Amino acid sequence: MKTPRVRIRPDIAQVTPYRQGRMAAEDAFKLSSNENPYDPLPSVARAMATAEINRYPEGSAAVVRDRLGAKWGVSPERVIVGPGSVALISNIITMACVPGDEVLFAWRSFEAYPQLTGAIGATSVGVPLRVDGTHDIPAMIEAVTDRTRVAFLCSPNNPTGTVISRTDFELFMRSVPETLLVVLDEAYAEFVTDPDAVRGADVVNAYPNLIILRTFSKAYGLAGLRIGYGIGPEYLIDAMRVVAMPLAVTDFAQRAAIASLDDEPELLERVASIAQRRDELRAGLIEQGWNVPDAQGNFLWLPTGDHTAEAALAFERAGLMVRPLGEGIRISVGEAESVEKLLRSSGEVVAVLRSRGHFAG
């Protein structure tokens, strides 16, 4: 006899839930979640020690918003702080869409876009990336319809690591209706070294239909505290606040974010070292025969095609937890000690793929 099941919405039953990158065993390197490998700065740890856990946090993260407003040259009313940028993505889709509306994004891109779109009954429109892993901006423009309510532009793109150029971004903004909400998702912006990449700070005041998303999880190393922020026109930020979960950003996270902004130069030195390690890893992988897109985040993308699961298992056996995603594997830039092991393992994997007639890429 079957156990009765509670009815859930049919559209929810068809949505694939978000799956976190696998946790690492004690003797393995965790390269599956794009985390910053450095420990928190001592000043950040001290700031968290003063948190009042018996009290509710300040609901609007006012001090954080003040600091970010000053940093970006906007009023605090144009800044919203949430428990990670993924929560803000959810707020955006919820406040802009009803069932039947469309949400546009490149694909493959951040897994949360289709998941959170499907969760409210809206329709995902994923436009295939170009062969080089970049956004196909002309194709995305063509995909806009009168049902499109939100367009996500992810730069650097997760998982391929490629950026959107300032030229392509401006083409997109010129070509779509001003009534279309465009989101520039810059979760990895601090790692970008490409001078042609679009920069949210340069366009934050240029468009009345643009929201820029950032996070403290990656470059600032606060992934475990869950804090991110968005900047946009005040009326859109107010609408996001309506649907946001109250009191969701902890006092720990707010204090850590403020301390991180205080010590930003030291943190950005760490970012520069990760970006250099990324470039060295990419050069090593290309030398082995991999076709690695121009990575500008803190991760690299290996196109493994139909051999993805097998390749991911080979990395795991070598003590490297990586992130298989459909047709490829995303590998985070981790500790310096992981580099030698990663290149040794990737060399073995690419050799196996070649022996089976698969040109890696």
| Multimeric status of the protein | single chain
Strand order of the largest sheet: 2-8-7-6-5-3-4
Helix content: 25-40%
For this structure, the CATH topology of the largest domain is Aspartate Aminotransferase, domain 2
Largest sheet: 7 strands, mixed
Q: What is the class of the largest domain in the CATH system?
A: Alpha Beta
Q: Give the total of beta strands.
A: 12
The CATH architecture term of the largest domain is 3-Layer(aba) Sandwich
Instruction: Tell me the structural class.
Output: alpha/beta
Residue-averaged pLDDT, rounded?
94
What gap, in angstroms, lies between the N and C termini? 50 Å
Provide structural commentary:
The chain has 361 residues and is of the alpha/beta class. The protein has two domains: 10-30 and 265-352, Aspartate Aminotransferase, domain 1, CATH 3.90.1150; 42-262, Type I PLP-dependent aspartate aminotransferase-like (Major domain) (Aspartate Aminotransferase, domain 2, 3-Layer(aba) Sandwich). It is 39% helix and 15% strand. The chain is built from 13 helices and twelve strands. The strands form three sheets. Strands 2-8-7-6-5-3-4 form a seven-stranded mixed β-sheet, sandwiched between helices. A three-stranded antiparallel β-sheet has the order 9-12-11, with helices on one face. Strands 1-10 form a two-stranded parallel ribbon. Helix 8 links the parallel strand 6 (181-185) and strand 7. Helix 4 (85-96) packs across helix 5. The longest helix has 25 residues, at 264-288. The termini are far apart. The model has no long low-confidence stretch (mean pLDDT 94).
